[in-house]
Structure formats: structure tokens, C-alpha cells
Write a structure and sequence with these properties.
This protein is an alpha+beta fold and 178 residues long. The protein folds into two domains: 66 residues, wza like domain (wza like fold), CATH 3.30.1950; 72 residues, Outer membrane lipoprotein wza fold like, CATH 3.10.560. Helices cover 20% and strands 26% of the residues. A five-stranded mixed β-sheet has the order 7-6-10-8-9, covered by helices on one side. A three-stranded antiparallel β-sheet has the order 2-1-5, covered by helices on one side.
Length: 178
């Protein structure tokens, strides 16, 4: 593949990422170790802040201590923090929780810049490859190997425009055989 073809492919991938995919709701996203969240307690700035979910799936909050966060959605975390604060600390606390940064993704194999990249909502495999500065000339552009976060199994999947990436996934682009 020549330089022009590679650049054309990269532009096509980027334009697909900008126009072809409808936004996917992240409200059902389950938190896990490595995610960074922001907790705000209305009227009590000292009780909020930015927290990274630790390896045990917990965040340590001022006054109430550790709260289980892994496995919860943002709304469920809000409820858990509000419930903990209402146990003798505040009357009817109003809490918000939002994900600031997700677990990173990893892109390996036949891409120009393999490595660790930040996850963004609605990320597709093609967008991730574009982030890694595109395919090498040896890349198999018909399939991708995906290992989902927490899994030891790598699955071969067709490389389609709507193939989604999740936080913590490892993508490997294989070499094509002539």
C-alpha cells in the first residue's frame, strides 16, 4: 500500500468515525478498577473530589471511608454515596457522580503506533486504529483480535465499521498473508 492509499484510508476511517455512528449511551457503563470518577455533594465541597477506583473496586471518600464502586453504574454510585452519607452524616444528601477517565485500551500489532490509548465513549475499532496512526502496509484489514477487559481469551472478529471497543480492551491487528 502506497503512502497515498494509507493516507486515504486514514481519512476514510476518521470520517466514518465522525459521521456514521450514532452516539451510544454510557449510562449503563459499569465502573471498574482504574476508572477515575468525580463525586460532588451539593453544599458540601469538602466531601467530594476526584477519585480513582482502586484494585479492590473501591473509592475512599472523606468522612464515610471506602465505598464499593466497581460493578456499579454512575447512577448506582451516586445512590451508594448518598446512602452512606445519610447514615448519620447528612440529611437527604444530593450527590452527583461522573466518569472523568475510563480504563485505557491497548492497540497492538500491525498499526503504526502500537501502545496504550485513552478510551473515549463510542469508540470503534477503526477509530482506535486511526488513533494509533493507521494500519501498516502488512496489516490484515479484514479482521481484528480482541481481548475484552478481564478475559484471557482473544477472539477474532471481522473488522467492520460498527465494531465497538470497551474500556480496558486489547486490540491486536494481525499480519496479512499474501
Amino acid at each position: 500500500m502506497g503512502a497515498r492509499t494509507g493516507i486515504g484510508l486514514l481519512i476514510a476511517i476518521l470520517s466514518l468515525g465522525l459521521t456514521a455512528f450514532a452516539p451510544q449511551s454510557v449510562s449503563d457503563y459499569r465502573l471498574a478498577s482504574g476508572d477515575k470518577v468525580r463525586i460532588d455533594v451539593f453544599g458540601e465541597a469538602a466531601l467530594g473530589g476526584e477519585f480513582v477506583i482502586d484494585a479492590n473496586g473501591r473509592i475512599a471518600l472523606p468522612l464515610i471511608g471506602e465505598v464499593q464502586a466497581a460493578g456499579l453504574t454512575g447512577a448506582q454510585l451516586q445512590g451508594a454515596v448518598a446512602q452512606a452519607l445519610s447514615q448519620g452524616y447528612l440529611n437527604q444528601p444530593r450527590v452527583t457522580a461522573q466518569v472523568l477517565t475510563y480504563r485505557p485500551i491497548y492497540i497492538l500489532g500491525e498499526v503504526n503506533r502500537p501502545g496504550e490509548y485513552p478510551y473515549l465513549p463510542d469508540l470503534t475499532v477503526l477509530n482506535a486504529v486511526a488513533t494509533a496512526q493507521g494500519f501498516t502496509y502488512r496489516a490484515n484489514t479484514r479482521r481484528v483480535f480482541v481481548r475484552r477487559a478481564g478475559s484471557q481469551v482473544e477472539e477474532a472478529q471481522p473488522l467492520t465499521a460498527d465494531a465497538r471497543v470497551s474500556p480496558g480492551d486489547t486490540l491486536r491487528i494481525g499480519e496479512r498473508y499474501f
